[in-house]
Amino acid sequence: MDTVSKGGSTLKVLHKHGPCSKLHNNKENTPNHSEILKQDEARVYKIRSRIAKKSSLNELEQTKAANLPAKSGSSLGSGNYLVTVGLGTPAKQLSLIFDTGSDLTWTQCEPCVRSCYQQQDPTFDPSESTTYSNVSCSSSTCTSLSSATGNSPGCSASTCVYGIQYGDSSFSVGFFGKERITLTSTDVFDDFYFGCGQNNNGLFGSTAGLLGLGRNKLSLVSQTAQKYNKIFSYCLPSTRSSTGHLTFGGSPSSSAKYTPFSTISMGASFYGIDFTAISVGGRNLSISSSVFSTAGAIIDSGTVITRLPPAAYSALRTAFRQKMKKYPMAKALSILDTCYDLSNYTTISVPKIGFSFKGGAQVKIDATGTLYASSPSQVCLAFAGNTNDTDVAIFGNTQQKTIEVVYDGAGGRLGFAPGRCK
């Protein structure tokens, strides 16, 4: 399940649909590329909505009743990655999506009063744990759910009720509780606040729920801050068959290049960053600084494709197409509009794309982060443009592969360490 690194605790990270994942056998629920990108668009829409406005638990109840997803049990975007943690006493092993764009950790719980989707792990039963307790409606921690979920909490027989909703009307509603969480054999935390889902449905695949790594005080990062000092890092698997890591604590990498976190208006739970420039083939594109500053940007482990401001994406696309003009173009793939037919080539030359961030940090995107391949005859530029200048930009997980990403919450900065991942 885990290893303990020097000065920190490390969990294995698996691609949800990779052969290393125990969810791999669920072939019928593995989405195709168009579905992955459609679900990614739904996630991005939800992030924008969450930043733009807050909703209530009553609105969530109404929305989920009217718009249950048509296909339950498929993936919340194939770009989601899994870690396994222990919950309860004795500890039950649960495979959870880890998500820097969410705060509340939750899992499906017995007795599933309303609905539980099918998951690979046995459903967590709080009655079998000696360390579980409900959180009272009158607790200040119950009140803090509003900022962590974007929904006002409810109350059921004096027990606090949470509700959280994602893209495509995926949702989890249930009791807010405290429990022991086991990250590694040596790192165990009591009184961990989490959601015990009694009504869950949507695009979570066969996972048991979600591990929230956002900036809110209810996230795992904040709840373990006394030990880990809000420091964590990860390497995402570069292929579906490889394994990455999620490490908590330790000293921030000295080889990483850092950019300060910024705060997104109405989106304080997200990890804000500031783009300053984009380069193609070693040359910076002519993009006004105001293009990046209008709506700001975040980094998100759960968004697959990086979203850029319209003017920035237009400049990137033009320069990239110019460098790739000797290759025949192919039809668009969902949100990806710059695609090529490379079926007749054994080797290709792909221009290097680079990003510059506030503070001087620079990241050169690996070829695996530049192209998204549906098939050899449809290989696309793995970036998309936002519809409006006021839409937040998102640095997605396709572009994060092969780079160790370091979150130094105590230092208020984000680091990129190239070459530190397999």
Descriptive terms for the model:
422 residues; alpha+beta; four-stranded mixed β-sheet; 30 strands; disordered N terminus
Brief summary:
By secondary structure, this protein is of the alpha+beta class. It has nine helices and 30 strands.
**CA gyration radius, whole angstroms:** 21 Å
**Strand count:** 30
Helix content: 10-25%
Note the total helix count: 9
Largest β-sheet summary = 6 strands, mixed, barrel
> How are strands sequenced across the largest beta sheet?
3-4-11-5-10-9
Average of per-residue pLDDT values: 87
- CA-CA gap between termini: 19 Å
What does this structure look like?
There is one protein chain. With 422 residues, the chain is an alpha+beta fold. Helix content is 17%, strand content 36%. The strands form five sheets. A six-stranded mixed β-barrel has the order 3-4-11-5-10-9.
Write the layout of secondary structure elements.
Elements: E1 2-5, E2 8-15, H1 33-52, H2 57-66, E3 81-87, E4 92-99, E5 106-108, E6 133-134, H3 140-143, H4 145-149, E7 154-156, E8 159-165, E9 171-182, E10 188-201, E11 209-212, H5 220-223, H6 225-228, E12 231-235, E13 243-249, E14 257-260, E15 262-264, E16 267-273, E17 275-280, E18 283-284, H7 289-293, E19 297-299, E20 306-308, H8 310-323, E21 329-330, E22 339-340, E23 353-357, E24 362-365, H9 367-370, E25 371-375, E26 378-381, E27 383-385, E28 393-395, E29 403-408, E30 413-418
Parallel strand pairs: 4-11, 5-10, 19-28, 20-27
Antiparallel strand pairs: 1-2, 2-3, 2-13, 3-4, 3-9, 5-11, 6-9, 7-8, 8-9, 9-10, 12-13, 12-29, 14-30, 15-16, 16-19, 17-18, 17-23, 21-22, 22-26, 23-24, 25-26, 29-30
